[in-house]
Amino acid sequence: MSETTVKLDESWRVALQKEFDSPYMKDLKAFLVEEKKAGKMIFPRGPDWFRALNLTPLSSVRVVILGQDPYHGMGQAHGLSFSVPRGVRVPPSLVNIYKELYSDFGIPPARHGNLTHWAKQGVLLLNSVMTVEQGRAASHQGHGWERFTDAVIACVNEQRTPVVFMLWGSYAQKKAAFVDSSRHLVLKAPHPSPLSAHNGFFGGHYFSKANAFLEEHGLKPIDWQLPVEANEVG
Question: Is 223 a catalytic residue?
Fold first, then answer.
């Protein structure tokens, strides 16, 4: 992966150029090429690997919601953590996120799972690992993506503008443990998965806390209500 082979928002390209030039990213590219040559189906599709970064430029980031892996079912992953394209069944974790959003803000659960509206407002929906093989959860862990997304988080952490980090689950909390909580708001909770949501995810008021923090620092709050009409792509 290099500047010439990856279409990437300019702010991220400049900030992450050292990563793209590093041997581990060249190894990651070679791995993905070999996987494709072997006939394996990789999700999301290539143009969507960096979709989270392209929809949310570095200077626009106001909130980070950190996921682990892309969904590995057909048609689910489209480059944004927890999000699925319209027409795809809303995944269980996102159902629980919607429940918490309703409890927090009174926003009725959307009938779709496309979170593009959030991303365009500055919500970086970042997966720690940005690709996966069809039907094989966590199949691309340990090949370099984690190091790359560590660099992404570090770039956000270094921004002067305060940012809200929503770290749901122990994986996200460990990955972003270096975030400067004296400047940024770090909201920790159990993962919204049905396996853990009832252990403390519900009732966290993450969305109202995020908006209150943004407004306290003179920043525009997030409109968490997703549009009914299909005014976004993917």
Answer: no
Tokens of 82: 């927890």
Cβ contact 54:8 at 8 Å = yes
Distance CA 118, CA 8 (A): 19
DSSP state letter for 136: B
Query: Of residues 21, 27, 69, 223, which has the active-site annotation?
Result: 69
Q: What whole-number distance in Å separates Cα of residue 104 and Cα of residue 12? A: 32
Q: Which distant-in-sequence residues (6+ apart) come within 8 Å of 15 by Cβ?
A: 58, 155
The values of phi and psi at residue 125, to 5°, are -95, 85
Calpha distance 20→3 (Å, rounded): 7
pTM over 0.70: yes
| DSSP code, position 163 | -
pLDDT at residue 230, rounded to an integer: 56
pLDDT number for residue 2 = 39
pLDDT in tens, 172-191: 999 999 999 999 999 999 99
Q: What phi and psi, each to the nearest 5 degrees, are found at residue 187?
A: -105, 115
Instruction: Report the distance separating Cα 159 and Cα 162, nearest Å.
Output: 7
Q: State mean pLDDT over 40-68.
A: 97
